[in-house]
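A further point concerns the way the authors explain their paired sequence and structure data. Nothing conveys this as quickly as seeing an actual entry. An entry of this sort, consisting of the sequence and the corresponding backbone structure tokens, reads as follows:
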Amino acid sequence: MSRERGPDHRLNAYREDLAAAHLRGEVRAERFAEGVDRRVVAPVLPLLRRPESGALMDTQLLYGETFRVYEEKNGWAWGQAVLDDYVGYVEAKELVSRPAKPTHIVAALRTFIYPKPDLKTRPAVPLSMNAKLKVVGARGNFSEIEGGGWVFTAHLASVGSYVRDFVSVAEEFAGVPYLWGGRDSLGLDCSGLVQMALERAGISSLRDTDMQETALGESLPEPIDFTSLRRGDLVFWKGHVGIMVDAERMIHANGFHMSVAVERLDIAMSRIARSDAGHVTSIKRLPRR
């Protein structure tokens, strides 16, 4: 996506007819509205550019995340994700009006909500890593969650319990299919992989590649010394990003493999240089933790 003049529509909720109240004085709109926080109860919820089922999916919301609603109309809710401020439309039926403060997140790549604390019970509702839950009880190897259902306790981590190496989280997604706008364990794109991995390490990240390139880490000096890269460096192209696994290889969700793949950086650079993404635009290094 290209950058815009004025407040970025991706991160600021405003249209000609309606805008978020906190944008009063910054944007023009026919009316302004206070947001109402609601909780996502679908396993994964597409956030779309228009209120149409076939519209482009810009990103996804995960179970338990909060969506701030400024308008609900014709079965669609328009607002923004509290996690990263992304603006768009979601199906209103997949939201509930009582946000719950989560106590745990899904730490495994994928798990399930079972109707009973028994792994043989059906139906099992799938949840992705980073889904957010409020645990209200326990029985045996399972945790009971608010709203009903049971999740295998070993697949959960307490809110605020982070991993030290976000690259190891990204590596868990190896082989997951590429999906434009995706950010869950069934499919995700390059910036979705970065955002998901960083979240498990307690590092906040915006959603799109250009946002991440601007906000994350410190740029390595130019001309870039590609022999000095290290694990965790973020390599950016126009519209693409990869994570260095070591000094020579990176992991990235990409349309060439149509999956999350590990490959040598020099091979990827040669191939990507012949595409619209062109040459590497920057390499960002995050502070050591």
